[in-house]
Write a structure and sequence with these properties.
194 residues, alpha+beta, four-stranded antiparallel β-sheet
């Protein structure tokens, strides 16, 4: 399949919740991760780290998320779409955990800095978007998942990663291509000043 151009990939990106069982080639995942790393960041600090989970480790992390969400739900804690996302993660051949590295720099800074939680989060968001759009351009489906944060401590016990867990990305060959959700017209989110 030919790669889509950037505009078509942006317009065609969808949240995929059903995946085929076939694996994604490591070379393709590496290419997507390299493109994610091309995102802009403050002072080029590149505050992201990506941990790819496959096989048994992926299954173990998903089980931990499922158990934590089920327990929280029993305690009547809002868990959003976590259990639905767990089903999607189980189908996906790979999960990419997204971490913020070097968060201790905020505490050590003597002077106010533009780097910090907000700036790093924006940079990581740009890297995630690069990954999502690049995957769409390559014919893959993705799902951006925030619900993993419900079990961040338990996940870190398994994969032993330093930094702060920010998000997860399910990636694989899509079974479906949902229609686009309704988008606000330009007039509702853009204003001009002269």
């Amino acid at each position: 399949m030919d790669d889509l151009d950037a505009v078509a990939a942006i317009e065609g990106r969808r949240s995929i919740r059903k995946f085929k069982p076939e694996p994604v080639a490591r070379q393709l995942l590496e290419e997507l991760l390299k493109l994610a790393g091309c995102a802009p960041s403050c002072d080029n600090n590149q505050p992201w780290k990506f941990v790819v989970l496959e096989g048994q480790v992926k299954d173990e992390v998903i089980e931990v998320i499922h158990n934590k969400a089920t327990s929280l739900k029993k305690d009547e804690v809002a868990i959003g779409s976590c259990l639905e996302n767990v089903r999607s993660m189980r189908q996906s051949p790979a999960i990419v955990m997204v971490y913020r590295i070097n968060p201790e720099e905020d505490e050590e800074a003597e002077l106010p800095s533009y780097r910090g939680d907000i700036t790093d989060a924006l940079s990581i968001g740009a890297a995630i978007e690069n990954f999502l759009v690049a995957a769409t351009a390559k014919g893959l489906g993705t799902l951006w998942i925030r619900d993993v944060l419900l079990a961040d401590e338990e996940i870190n016990e398994i994969i032993k990663e330093e930094g702060r867990l920010m998000s997860a990305l399910a990636v694989g060959h899509a079974v479906e291509q949902p229609s686009s959700g309704e988008r606000k017209p330009l007039t509702e989110f853009v204003s001009w000043r002269e």
